[in-house]
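User:
I study polymers; will you set down one protein's sequence and backbone structure tokens?

Assistant:
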Amino acid sequence: MIDQPSPPPIVITARALPPLAGEAVQDVVVLGRPALERAPSQALEDIVRAVPGVQLFRRSGARSANPTTQGISARGLGGNAASRMVVLLDGVPQGDPFGGWLVWPSLDAAGLAEVRVTRGGGNVTVGPGALAGAIELDSDRTPGLRAALDGGLHGAGEARLAAVHGGTSLAAWGGTDAGFIPVVAEDRGVADRRSPFAYGGTRLGLRAGAFSAAAALFADRRERGLPGTANASRGADLSLRWRRANRGSVTLFHQERRFESAFASASADRSSVSPTLSQFVPAKATGWNAEWQPLATLRLGTDGRVARGASEEEASFVAGRPTRDRVAEGRQATAGLYGDLTLPVGSVTLSGALRVDRWWLRGLSLEERNRSTGALLLSEQAPDREGTVPSGRVGARLPLGRALTLRGAAYLGWRLPTLNELVRPFRVGRDAVAANAALKPERLRGIEAGAEWKRGPWSASATLFANRLRNPIINVTRGTGPGTFPGVGFVAGTYRRRENVAALDTKGVEAALGWSRGDWRASGTLSMVSAHVRDSGPLDGLRPAQVPRLTATAEIGWRELGLQLRHVGAQNEDDLGTLRLPAATTLDASASWPLRDGLALRVRGENLTNARVLAARSADGIDERATPRRLWLGLTLRR
């Protein structure tokens, strides 16, 4: 008797409507449950940046990095704290309402059915801001139970639970980590110490007929490796959805965010630490999305988001005490209409999408007061602004025989500056960056062409792309201290200001090769990007900060055993290219052995060779590293 292959498991997601066939004219990568479970790191930011061309603003992950450096981008478009990709969970945008950064510990892979990564602009259904693409996270609604418990080096422990029964779903996650010392050994002083980290969250979903609701809570806390540098995030989300199968949906959501951070500066010999800033950032956002699908090939919709936030700071420390109170605040809103049409013409799939957004900026202000007398020292009020921006995409997909498919697309996109970029100055050590309330929206135009091939156990894909980002927001160097500079006051190190430069041009290639036969699998990915700033000033022709020319991965696996090699090329640390982070290669691994009744033993290893991956380099020669070697041993349960 010949055994018949088992049918693929049925996975139920919380997606409102299925993807349109026309979305396949662009480069899309879907990571399902098997890929999420096999990942050597269970941190979601590590999982998504394994997709070629996708990168965090900095190389360090959320365990040790300040959340304000955790924006995500792709295709060499770089950025700063703000993300140039949109991240959505069940259709709800997850970027911080004030700063646009991602609090990655609030987004855990345990309760997800899949992660859908689209690189390139013009994805009109995900809302504004998707310059470099979109990452869509879909909650798993498949009945069953999954749980994991892991322990690791550096006093680390993680626990995850995802359960679905009837119309109720629950995901919970949490962990703690004693951390590592971020500053490399040869640069450390007696003040340097470990960066402990703790986090936790839960998400509850309820469904009854056409109606569903979801509520989430999360919190995390970490230290940056020096006394007086703790930061913490807390948040709560609520969403309500009505859905008519394959015809339409309406989603309403509300988000609350709280971010607190303390900053300190180490002495030249790193033997002592002085406080420099204490910050509290409350922010909130309310929004909606409504979609109607009158035909299987046509989707019409509207969405919007209203956000407000403030940065309340104790600043200008003298003898360890703050002398000034600073408040930077504002409101912003967007509202859009969109349509996405797919036209099958014989074997060719044509796609056209159009979106029109209206945006508003209101109440942008920055005030500073003498902390002891209450006297007003600085008061800046920016005029209210608003505007209208179109965006969209046209593309085609053409199969050539059974094995080869060609595709291509041209697109427009845009991003509104965050409140953080518009009103809040900030300091990092001896350096300071001034805000700029006059920043204009970023505008993107791009084109891509690709091919996909599959025959037997082999598959391959390649995409060529070219983008021009007009008015990109960059932290531009404008002076060197010691001295007093506008918008920030006294600066001992480098003074920078957020500015729109003329343009950022990127072009490159993304490629993937895969092979799978029986229990064996192997794959490789490559991203090569040429990126240059176009401006009349000193940045013209330079490579933007934090953009590597080359990233590549190679993976081989057998059953539940996998090895992954990842290489990240050299990149500039600053806008002028005077500080450079060298290339780095890391080796990760994971393995799982079944025990009984759905119980399995799991071993994971990150950066097994303990390679030095520099994440930051300061002008005074201090280097910080990303995650060192980490080993995990745990149990997983699936019922």
Notes: Confidence is low (pLDDT under 50) at residues 1-7. The helical segments are 33-38, 44-48, 419-423. The domain at 21-174+193-232+241-281+300-317+340-638 is CATH 2.40.170.20 (Maltoporin; Chain A).
